[in-house]
Design goal:
The chain has about 600 residues and is α/β, with parallel strands linked by helices. It is built from 18 helices and 25 strands. The strands form five sheets. A seven-stranded parallel β-sheet has the order 11-10-9-12-13-14-15, sandwiched between helices. A six-stranded mixed β-sheet has the order 17-16-18-19-20-21, covered by helices on one side. A five-stranded antiparallel β-sheet has the order 3-23-24-22-25, with helices on both faces. The protein binds 1,4-dihydronicotinamide adenine dinucleotide (NAI) and 2-oxo-3-(phosphonooxy)propanoic acid.
Length: about 600
């Protein structure tokens, strides 16, 4: 067996290369025109050329707006009604909101697929319908760190203000009164504070409360005990927190499991005279139950920054109750936090629109930049193998079961395949549908179409320098329009590798080939005999189709062989017909990459 490479300059003398595999593989390499974009575009990139449009639907710091304007057309339209938002959204690639805008399923549907990113300029994403976003392939990113301190400081401000009746006393002085006996407060020092939700905000509240001399306990089923211990906080059960706390401060997100977590039953478990602070979300408290608990004397006072409905109705019993201190969702509203949040979200949205994977993605895996750089050529390979495999299927065969095998010398924990699986799914689905598939909606779309993708990893010996040696895609229970693509075990099979950073097809069915996956591909099965490369090459040459790569894989000399031909331009029907008419060609297929 022999392999040949054509030198980079046009010349007829070919150089013999080293033999490679048990199956003979003849490799003819033509100089390739590289026309690849320098940027890694994986997830949501808008079509190149057009400047994207970003709708900023709530007040965002100037620094963020300036950053956005460098990259996009920015439409700042505040106080839109839901109908106005739905009308505008069909012209926008990204939407930025705070907590005051409900990004509902209607919004995603109204966008007709144009909306690619929703940026939440803050932490809580309970106002965004994440399931609908995912189903529409829309990435949701948030700004999880910039307002932590502001929220924690607001929590502490409310705690102290409530304990010392600051807002009530202030209002009474302004109303001309001087009620020194009425507004006697309670002290914080030595009291037990239960922090419910020991995340970023909760732990900062705990740290500050310790500084005030409070005894701090925390409840958080997911928080690591050592983080709590490091700041001198004991993690306790939910019931223990309720039963022992003099003050309860809420810092968990609003989810199905935290909705109305303070209710009639749980208020009944609290110490009489407890005081409650809520800078998390109104929905974590059953507000009617809180009114009852205040009336029953279980809760002595409450301080609320957030409400189930914002703004709360004019007749809200909580707002009118003198024992309740209220602020209009001001937790994140400091100059510093808003500047930080604006920059954090603008960077995340611009990055996502450029197609980079966002570090603060809420509904997609977060893939660290270094992993991404390493996986980039494999991501391209994965998508192209998916595209090839599905185009090899005979019309009418439904693709239901796909097996992906990754050959790698890396330990399984060291290889994150979610990105690769998503791109294989994209490759499998996009050529046969009008669905847009990306990392966000790949698993959902596959499931919806009844496509089962199983993954297997083969641990190879050798150096784990490269994340992957090969990727193999097999589709079971289908017929192929190119019979040679069916492996011995009966599946349509393609396998590829990355060589010098470029994805290559290295196996079709049982035939080893070697063709760079750029442009498009013609696969031919023929009787192995001299002159075949020349015959096919000259048909394409006559048609002015530039051949980038050719490789022949055969089972044994003079038996059947599969020739893989990479072409820069799509050949005409006539050219393909002429290839089919070459006597030794038994079957052929043209595949778009
Ligand atoms: N009022 C305001 O302006 C602001 C409000 N927030 C709210 O505060 C919440 C927390 O923010 P971060 O601390 O930044 O988020 P985070 O994600 O760092 O912390 C949330 C913590 O809650 C815990 N948790 C989840 N379910 C729980 C449960 N059932 N019981 C107890 N703990 C539970 C999580 O394990 C996590 O440690 C946000 O989700 C947001 O709703 C945040 C910033 C500003
Ligand atoms: O970040 C959060 O979760 C907040 O609640 C802050 O909300 P805002 O951006 O001030 O509407």
């Amino acid at each position: 067996m022999a392999a040949y490479a054509k030198p980079p300059t046009a010349s007829l003398s070919w150089t013999k290369l080293l033999p490679s595999s048990p199956f003979a593989t003849a490799l003819v390499s033509f100089p390739r025109r590289r026309n690849r974009s320098a940027k890694t575009v994986f997830v949501v990139a808008v079509s190149s050329g057009a400047k994207p449009t970003v709708l900023v639907a709530e007040k965002l710091g100037e620094a963020g707006i300036s950053l956005l304007k460098e990259f996009a057309n920015v439409d700042c339209s505040y106080n839109l009604t839901p109908e106005e938002l739905c009308t505008k959204i069909s012209l926008c690639d990204a939407l930025i909101v705070r907590s005051g805008t409900k990004v509902t399923r209607d919004v995603f549907e109204a966008s007709s697929g144009r909306l690619k990113v929703v940026g939440r300029a803050g932490v809580g994403i309970d106002n965004v319908d994440l399931a609908a976003a995912t189903e529409h392939g829309c990435l949701v990113v948030n700004a999880p760190t910039a307002n932590t301190i502001a929220a924690a400081e607001h929590g502490i401000a409310l705690l102290a203000a409530m304990a010392r009746n600051i807002s009530q006393a202030s209002a009474s002085v302004k109303a001309g009164q001087w009620l020194r006996n009425k507004y006697v407060g309670v002290s914080l020092v030595g009291k037990t504070l239960a922090v419910m939700g020991f995340g970023k905000v909760g732990s900062e509240v705990a740290r500050r409360a310790k500084g005030l001399g409070m005894h701090v306990i925390a409840h958080d089923p997911y928080a690591p005990a050592d983080r709590a211990r490091a700041i001198g906080v004991e993690l306790v059960s939910f019931d223990e927190a309720l039963a022992t706390a003099d003050f309860i401060s809420l810092h968990m997100p609003l989810t199905a499991s935290t909705s109305k977590v303070l209710n009639d039953e749980t208020f009944a478990k609290m110490k009489k005279g407890v005081r409650i602070v809520n800078v998390a979300r109104g929905g974590v408290i059953d507000e009617e139950a809180l009114v009852k608990a205040l009336d029953a004397g279980i809760v002595a006072q409450a301080a609320l920054d957030v409400f189930t409905v914002e703004p709360p109705p004019a007749d809200s019993k909580l707002v009118s109750d003198e024992r309740v201190t209220v602020t209009p969702h001001l937790g994140a509203s400091t100059m510093e936090a808003q500047e930080g949040v604006a920059i954090e979200i603008a960077e995340a949205v611009v990055g996502a629109l450029r197609g980079e994977l966002a570090a603060t993605a809420v509904n997609a895996p977060m893939v660290p930049a270094e992993v991404l750089t390493e996986l980039k050529p494999f991501v391209e390979l994965a998508e192209k193998l998916g595209r090839l495999a599905v185009q090899l299927i005979a019309g009418g065969s439904g693709v239901k079961s796909v097996k992906v095998t990754y050959g790698s010398a890396r330990a399984p924990d060291d290889l994150d395949t979610r990105l690769l699986r998503a791109m294989i799914t994209k490759g499998l689905i996009e050529p046969i549908s009008s669905v847009f598939v990306n990392l966000v909606n790949a698993d959902f779309t596959a499931k919806q179409r009844g496509l089962r993708i199983s993954e297997e990893r083969i641990l190879l010996d050798g150096s784990p320098e490269s994340p992957l040696e090969f990727v193999q895609v097999q589709i079971a229970n289908v017929e192929s329009k190119f019979a040679s693509a069916i492996s011995e075990s009966g599946e349509v099979k393609v396998e590829g590798k990355v060589k010098d950073g470029v994805p290559h097809l290295t196996k079709v069915g049982s035939f080893e080939v070697d063709v760079s996956l750029e442009g498009s591909l013609i696969l031919c099965r023929q009787v192995d005999q001299p002159g075949m490369i020349g015959k096919v090459g000259s048909v394409l040459g006559e048609e002015n189709v530039n051949v980038s790569f050719m490789s022949v894989g055969r089972i044994a000399p003079r038996k059947q062989a599969v020739m893989a031909i990479g072409v820069d331009e799509p050949p005409s029907k006539d050219a393909l017909k002429k290839i089919g008419e070459i006597p030794a060609i038994e079957e052929f297929v043209y595949l778009k990459l």
